[in-house]
Design a protein that fits this description.
CATH topology: Rossmann fold
Number of helices: 6
Bound molecules: S-adenosylmethionine
Oligomer: single chain
CATH class: Alpha Beta
CATH architecture: 3-Layer(aba) Sandwich
Order of helices and strands: HEEHEEHEHHEHE
Strand content: 25-35%
Shape: globular
Radius of gyration: 16 Å
Distance between the termini: 37 Å
Number of strands: 7
Largest sheet: 7 strands, mixed
């Protein structure tokens, strides 16, 4: 998973202040935090097994983690309360992605950053056809993951401005390896 590690390295060091991770999984981003810039870390993760792993990983990395076993579609946080929200490889797995993105926007301070690294819809029509064909299998074997999420549109449609976005195929099967990463600001 070296390409994924490289992608994390490109966005996570920019997290600062009061940070919220969406669908944190086992906490693979902790290694890339620039800790002196971070004041508090919150996370949501619906899966109890992954949540336990994230807690252990946080302890191992000497991070005080405030983690909630809930989904991103309804965040129990105040409006305008985070400086950074992180989503890495999570947007593909959230069933109510539009709702989750508007919740993320709601909890962000006006000058906050949404940092993301996600795989998503390929720019090649032939690959998109494969992504659509393989969605049903991928959903079953990979925790609800959709292969053809249009990441930039999902972000823009939730009232964000894309400040920085890059995209490319990273090494791996093409249907799974078209990546989008960067940062976005809430329009408020
Ligand atoms: C591929 S994993 C990525 C985990 C982690 N963000 C990472 O970078 O390794 C997708 C994650 O999304 C989580 N997830 C699924 N549905 C979700 C939802 N509705 N709200 C928040 N997280 C969700 C899964 O439990 C899983 O941890």
């Amino acid at each position: 998973m070296k390409p994924f590690r490289k992608q994390r390295e490109k966005v996570i060091p920019y997290a600062s202040g009061r940070v919220l991770e969406i669908g944190i999984g086992s906490g693979l981003n902790f290694n890339y935090y620039n800790k002196p810039n971070i004041s508090e870390v919150f996370a949501v993760e619906p899966d109890s097994v992954l949540l336990k792993k994230a807690k252990k990983n946080a302890e191992f990395n000497d991070i005080k983690l405030n983690i909630y076993q809930i989904k991103a579609e309804e965040l129990p946080f105040d409006d305008r309360s985070f400086d950074t929200v992180i989503s890495t490889y999570t947007m593909c797995s959230i069933p109510g992605l539009g709702k989750a993105m508007s919740e993320i926007n709601r909890v962000m301070k006006p000058d906050a950053k949404f940092l993301f690294s996600e795989h998503g819809k390929s720019p090649d029509a032939g690959i998109v056809r494969w992504q659509k064909r393989l969605n049903a299998v991928q959903k079953r074997i990979a925790g609800g993951c959709h292969l053809d999420v249009d990441i930039p549109s999902e972000i823009i449609n939730a009232d964000f401005r894309l400040d920085q976005i890059e995209s490319m195929y990273v090494p791996g099967p093409k249907f799974l390896s078209f990546h989008y990463w960067g940062s976005a600001s809430p329009l408020k």
